[in-house]
From TrEMBL:
Protein's recorded name: Phosphopentomutase
Catalytic reaction annotation: alpha-D-ribose 1-phosphate = D-ribose 5-phosphate; 2-deoxy-alpha-D-ribose 1-phosphate = 2-deoxy-D-ribose 5-phosphate
EC category: isomerase
UniProt source species: Candidatus Coatesbacteria bacterium 4484_99
Keyword Manganese found: yes
Function (record text): Isomerase that catalyzes the conversion of deoxy-ribose 1-phosphate (dRib-1-P) and ribose 1-phosphate (Rib-1-P) to deoxy-ribose 5-phosphate (dRib-5-P) and ribose 5-phosphate (Rib-5-P), respectively.
Amino acid sequence: MEFRRVILIILDGVGVGEMPDAGKYGDCGSATFQNTYRANGGLKIKNMLSLGMGRITGIERDYPVEGAFGKSAIASEGKDSTTGHWEIAGVITREPFPTFPDGFPDELISEFERLTCRKVIGNKPASGTEIIKELGEKHLKTGALIVYTSADSVFQIAAHEDVVPVEKLYEYCRIAREICRDDYRVGRVIARPFKGKVGEFYRTERRRDFSVPAPDGIVLDSLIKAGRMVLGVGKVDYIFGGRGFTECVHTKDNNDGMKQILNSMKRLSEGGMIFSNLVDFDMRWGHRNNYEAFGRGLEDFDRFIPTLKDNTVDGDIVIITADHGNDPTTISTDHTREYVPIMIWHRQIEGSVEIGLRHTMADIGQTVADVLGVEKTPDGNSFKEMLI
């Protein structure tokens, strides 16, 4: 059969079990989906099970499947969103972005202070919600910017919206993006605006990521070069440095993201692709170790699946995957080095199709290129023939 449109959905942080090298990253025992399922005493996820999630994870393994399913290793070095998305788009990152477990070098911070005319406080690895509790009051009094990092290659800047207007915060992030290139090679600069009074601070939805430019060869570039429509939903255009999208709609939360996926499906032309990210699993629940909300989010997505299917047409192919893990049941609040699920459905598929263990998520990007008939990606092997 001929596929005409691709709907790709990334469940941000929904990993399915530790990879063999998880110990190198301090992630032994991580299994985001399985551990969340068990911690909640089970979940109502019959639609995900029908797409193969039970077979992938070993949970309710005998549930009948109608679709193609498997899982993939992450071939890139690291466990961050940038390298994960790039790999899904067909390019493996072989040299990891550096991390800063002791904070950023003094000379980098000094240059940032000079260019922004603001002092910096923090400059250490921290949970985003915890550091605004710790330093938010000092920030309000002094106007100093809260700079922090994590286990990923990120330069994060937190500021209260009443102290630093959001557009000004974005300007500071662009400055940081410029000076965090070259020797430092920081993967992402992230704006983290927050509001509220002392003791009641909360982060707002106006987060913005400023990534290093995406590498050449991503499938998005091939689609744009071929004159195809590429619609982004969520933070994806930030991750690719604004490249490879006809347009992108940013979302408030997962529920808004699911609505925008449906809206985009109504507009997507033949030969095009929707590249979407549902970020709450990672940003709101994984990083905050909130397994109850994570579980409810999985159930919400499960209820969305029948509507998603109903809105497809002949020639559409739906691919659901993740970019890394973020196990909310562990002590860590960072990403986890895990396999990711691959679940695929289209109207003509019959029964269950096992695509097995893929050695790189780049197989997804290569398959998209194959399905839509555009230039191949540098990495990955297509599994299109298994889906027909």
